[in-house]
Amino acid sequence: MLFPILYVNGQFVPKEEALIPVYDLGLLRGLGIFDFFRVIDGVPIFVEDHLERLQRSLNLLDLQTGLTAQDWTGLIYQVIRVNNARRAGFRVVVTGGFSEDGYSIPAQKNIYLMAHTLPENDPAQYANGIRILTAEYHRDMPEAKTTIYVKSMTMQQKLKAEKAYEVLYHWNGQLFECSRCNIFFIDHGGELHTPARGMLKGITRKQIMDIASQHGIPVHERDIQLSEIGGMAGAFLTATTKGALPVVKIDDLPVGDGRIHPLAVQLNQWYEQRVADYIRNAVHPLD
After folding, report:
1. In 3D, which of 275, 239, 253 has the Cα closest to residue 126?
2. Cα atoms found within 13 Å of the Cα of residue 138, Cβ hemisphere only
3. pTM (two decimals)
4. 3-state DSSP call for residue 248?
5. pLDDT digits over 51-99, tens only?
6. Spatial distance between the Cα atoms of 63 and 66, rounded to a whole number of angstroms
7. 246 Cβ neighbours under 8 A, 6+ residues apart
8. Which of 77, 96, 116 is the endpoint of a domain?
9. Residues 108 and 128 both lie in one domain
10. What's the CA gap between 216 and 209, in Å, rounded?
11. The total number of structural domains that make up the chain
12. Phi then psi for 281, rounded to 5 degrees?
């Protein structure tokens, strides 16, 4: 559910009035990027990393807004304050702008900022692990966080029917990413392996890799083949709202012995501590 006030192109408006014309290029041509992060205790978590990724996505699609990281941060805090959003999911969306001929890209881009209610994570997923399905697919411009999620949306019914949490993309036998997550594998020596290219490099992925490095756990960024899954001891996903979420089955194949790998649990605990430290050291916008 949306919080009551949104930011739309320089104005704060009630969600009921946050309407856009049908000639927005995000609608007509799918020309848009977004970023998404958590707000906890009024603090946008790892906002600096998210804004860096936002600008990288904007550059890849040549969607320049003229806003600096400081400008974005100020707007984000304003939306948090006006909604008294102590706990939320926060979404930033930039589209190609309003185009009356449906193709020409105007100089003025459209900017939407909104906060959503943020459900608590399901403890059973962390206690029992999750199942994911594979699908042969590779996103166009995967290094950018675009608004195009057609494949994952069309997979929703299958995921629900098969009681699976996510879809893992592969192409010509090479693994890339999940629709909303990155994936890590744990080998039998306790080392981590994660795809190196052809996907969106998530902020939680970055944090987990840094945490692993601090604790002396080797991380191998490399091309990983679909055929390697059977030889792994464990796996987990990383995502903004999930931290490190253990995977115990991919399609009908158990990962390792089909149980949660203890390293996935430990990494998630370290990650949650890092988030708590970030909140404690942040300037609280609602205080």
Report:
1. 239
2. 12
3. 0.95
4. strand
5. 999 999 999 999 999 999 999 999 999 999 999 999 999 999 999 999 9
6. 9
7. 125, 126, 129, 130, 234, 235, 236, 260, 261, 264, 265, 268
8. 116
9. no
10. 11
11. 2
12. -90, -5
